[in-house]
Amino acid sequence: MRLTAALAMLVLLPLAALPARSADEPEVVYGKFHRAAMAGDLVEMFKHGPAARRAELQGMSAARKDATLKLTQFNMPRAFKLEQRTLHSGGRATLVVSGTGNMGPRGLETMYGIVTLLQERGEWKVDEANWSNDRPAVLGAAKPAAAEKAAPKAAASARGAPLVGTSTATPGRTLGEAKPACVYKPVMTAADMEACK
User: Fold this and answer.
1) What is the pLDDT of residue 183?
2) How far, in Å, CA of 170 to CA of 90, rounded?
3) How many Å is the Cα radius of gyration of the chain?
4) Share above pLDDT 90 across residues of the chain, in percent, rounded to a whole number
5) Domain range list for the chain
6) Fold of 21-136
7) Consecutive H or E run containing 159
8) Which of 27, 47, 98, 194 has the most CB atoms in a 10 Å sphere around its CB?
């Protein structure tokens, strides 16, 4: 009996000396929220939201839950990168995140998210996550390297299209015959309409 008590003391004593597990950082909580959204797990997603949002989930119909999930997934990129973290007084935090998302007909584009978190019972909870393709002012101007890359393209387009057979064409690629210019007329033939396609 004494041996069992002594062994229990040896096992439990080091565990008592360990510090209590601290709450996850805001960006870690948002990461869990984001992964749950991308996985289609609305219950897990709302688990990382405040109690008021979880209560909303309980009152939602199945159709509304499905629509909420689809809208959330559509408005977020599949992955994100933390750009900036700001901790505010009163248990609030703001994250600025970015990722490449599909903006519909415009194709892939950098999206920026402003995520607001609040502390609830000592844990961070995602209050709001708003994504758009507008770079937030808090991140400052776009990087100069991107502007330098865009400048040659703008200069090239200002010169107009390269002439057939000139050296400005991509190496290894041959250009075909130039298409006739499109001229809109009150009455157009099939050839005129083909030129305007």
Assistant:
1) 72
2) 58
3) 28
4) 35
5) 21-136
6) Nuclear Transport Factor 2; Chain: A, (3.10.450)
7) helix 144-159
8) 98
